């Protein structure tokens, strides 16, 4: 299991530079990954998101920098 993602030294970019989500399926996968992190642990969440082809920089941002997550659209 490769958890190098957890040890990234580069700071994540600010959330304000991201475009709003357009892919509802990817959004649902990311939400389930966040729930897996809360219910189990970060490694489980990383593996879940990787198995659904979520980009490493997105995985890092949503799991390790919750303050930089996109705000849900209403």
Produce a short descriptive summary.
The chain is an all-alpha fold and 74 residues long. It contains 3 helices and no strands. The radius of gyration is 12 Å and the shape is globular.
Share in helix = 40-55%
- State mean pLDDT (0 to 100 scale): 79
User: Kindly, what is the distance between the CA atoms of the first and last residues, rounded to a whole number of angstroms?
Assistant: 37 Å
Unreliably modeled segments: 5-9
Query: What is the C-alpha radius of gyration, as a whole number of Å?
Result: 12 Å
What fraction strand? under 5%
How many DSSP helices? 3
Shape, per Cα inertia axes: globular
Give, in order, the helices and strands: HHH
Biggest beta-sheet profile: none
- Number of beta strands: 0
SSE class: mainly alpha
Structure description:
- The termini are far apart.
- The protein has helices spanning 24-39, 42-51, 56-64.
- Helix 1 (24-39) packs antiparallel against helix 2 (42-51) and helix 2 packs antiparallel against helix 3.
- It is mainly alpha-helical.
- The protein has 3 helices and no strands.
- The chain has a domain at 23-66.
Task: Give the SSE map.
Blueprint: H1 24-39, H2 42-51, H3 56-64
Helix pairs in contact: 1-2, 2-3
Properties at a glance:
74 residues, mainly alpha, 0% strand
């Amino acid at each position: 299991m490769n958890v190098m993602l957890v040890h990234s030294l580069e700071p994540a970019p600010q959330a304000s530079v991201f475009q709003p989500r357009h892919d509802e399926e990817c959004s649902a996968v990311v939400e389930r990954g966040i729930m897996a992190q809360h219910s189990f642990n970060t490694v489980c969440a990383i593996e879940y998101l990787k198995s659904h082809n979520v980009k490493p920089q997105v995985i890092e941002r949503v799991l390790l920098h919750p303050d930089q997550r996109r705000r849900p659209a209403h």
